Amino acid sequence: MISKQTKIKVNNIEINYLKVGNGPQTLLLLPGALGSIFTDFKPQIETLNREKYTIVAWDPPGYGFSRPPDRDFSPGFFYRDADYAISLMKSLQIDKYSLLGWSDGGITALIMASKAVDRVEKLIVWGSNAYVTEKDIELYEKIRDVQKWSPRMRQPFINLYGEQYFSDTWNAWVDSFQIILKENGGDICREALSKINAPTLILHGAQDPLVPMEHPVHLHTKIKYGSLEIYPEGKHNIHLRYAELFNSAVDDFLAEDL
Q1: Where are the alpha helices (DSSP H) in 116-231?
Q2: pLDDT over 90 at 84, yes or no
Q3: CA-to-CA distance for 211 and 136, rounded, in angstroms?
Q4: Which of 166, 197, 217, 248 lies in disulfide reach of 157, CB 3.0 to 4.6 Å?
């Protein structure tokens, strides 16, 4: 199933996005670091019910086909992504929507839900965190060298970006969190959490090698209407590894009365 991606000018950047389905509930899918529409969300785009949902997925600025420009990791980049995503939905004339955010995309979704309070109906995040610790940075440093990644993990990014852009951008990503730890005490978006009014489902793989369990627990503690579900054997990509189970959890949560 090939769905057509297209571009729309949002502020000063040509943003690549995909829109499929014609259901009454609109979902915006937000990919993780260096992620893109189909590298990150193929099982959701292909399997979620298009009569229930209108599905929008995007490539954040500097990722996927939302290039140029190259990715900008200068301070506040998650807040900029959130502003672009909110503007994208305005440009598409979509007033109300729910958010599905993975990893970095979950951070962007948390910020969006804190800013566009009257627009975001529900929020689903997984593999996400509102701050980083020394321990987190150590985990990132272990995977800084993309040459040490397994070919299965590495190849989709090489296909999308070429080796140089992939390696340079990943290094810049690790550097950006070093800066957040050093200059911001590790705070990514802690202040956003108390402003979120949307019912929120936090999903997490207990074996996630990048995001220790303290992070989903923190989100659950700080978000007013948050619920937490753990996948005991799950790692970072539970929505890909357990796609059927994950999609079912999404369906159930979105079907609950607001």
Answers
A1: 134-142, 151-161, 163-184, 190-193, 214-222
A2: yes
A3: 7
A4: 166
